[in-house]
Structure formats: structure tokens, C-alpha cells
Amino acid sequence: xxxSRYKHGIFTILELIRMGYKFNFIFTIGExxxxxxxxxxxxxxxxxxxxxxxxxxxxxxxxxxxxxxxFQNDYCVGLDYHIEKFSTEIGIQYKCAQGLCSxxxxxxxxxxxVNLSCGYYKAHSNEEYTNLGELKRAVILCARLVEDLKYxxxxxxxxxxxxxxxxxxxxxxxxxxxxxxxxxxKTYFEKKSQSRTKG
Length: 199
Description:
The chain is α/β, with parallel strands linked by helices. It is built from eight helices and six strands; from the N terminus they run αααββαβαβββααα. It has helices at residues 5-18, 36-42, 45-52, 79-89, 104-107, 132-148, 168-171, 183-198, and strands at residues 57-62, 67-69, 95-97, 113-117, 120-121, 129-130. The chain has a four-stranded mixed β-sheet with strand order 1-4-2-3. The termini are far apart.
């Protein structure tokens, strides 16, 4: 089984460094096992405070070629919409969308963030592949965001909802639902909608 999706974010960051951009970054492990790596990093108070002092954060780990996962997942207030507008202005045209669990779930407890598409498809299958054109667009978008996006994160209590979570027990995800087609995402939408209605 190919696992190219894990390399897309790393590739993007290394490309930005190669091109001379200056920014802070984190490499993590264990996202598929419950965001273990980012969780361990965020246990360290000094690192949490450093993260909170930054203007915003971007996670590069979304399938497809043009999604911005943000407000609809309680990752931010308006960062995703600012990026959507910015991307349209520079001719790349990413769009706000809704997604499932990622390291952004943990990171967004401390800073507004989004999860950006980076051109991988059919993850968790032996048919996984990369659209190199879309991966290049992700690199270009991130470069322009580092250069030109002006945005200051609000405190997390302004946008985080505590009425529901993303635990596997609550949502009942399993391997057959996750990544094979859109069944897992449809199930998530339905359950999140029910949770909001009950609240």
C-alpha cells in the first residue's frame, strides 16, 4: 500500500525552505493513530506558548486538490475564508470545505489553523496516487501565504466547540469507511449535524 500522502506536507515544507522562505514548522508522526505526535509536542508548555504567539497555522494533509478545512471543523473563525479569498485573487481557487480528523484538531486548541489539500487521492488503498500539478499548487499557495497573508489568530475559546468530539468510539469509524470512498465523510456530516441539533 502506498503511503505517499504522509510525504506531501513534508515535501511542501522542504520546497519552501529550499526556495528561501522563513517560517516555523513541525513534523509529526502518528496522525492516523490518534494525532499522537502533535499531542506529545503540545504537552510541552514552552512549545504551546510559542505556537500561540504565531499569527496562524497551516496543516498540509488534506486529500484532493483545492480544499480548505477550517471553520466547519472548528479550527478557526475566519482563516479559511481569508485563504479562500486570497487563493482566488492569485488564481489558485481553493474552497472552504469540511473534513474529518487531522492534526489540526489538536493544533486548533491553541491557534487558528486550517488543513489544506495537497493533491493525493484514494488514501489507505493500493490505488493511492498523487496529482503532481495539485501538489505544486499547494506549494505555490503556501509560499504566497507565507509572503503575503495578514491574519492574526483569535484565542481558541472564540471558535472551539466543546459539545462534540472526534473520537472513534463516538463516530464509529472503521477502516472500511475511512478512505475507500465518501462513506466515512457522509457519516461524519450526518452525525455532526445531529450533534449540533441536540445541542
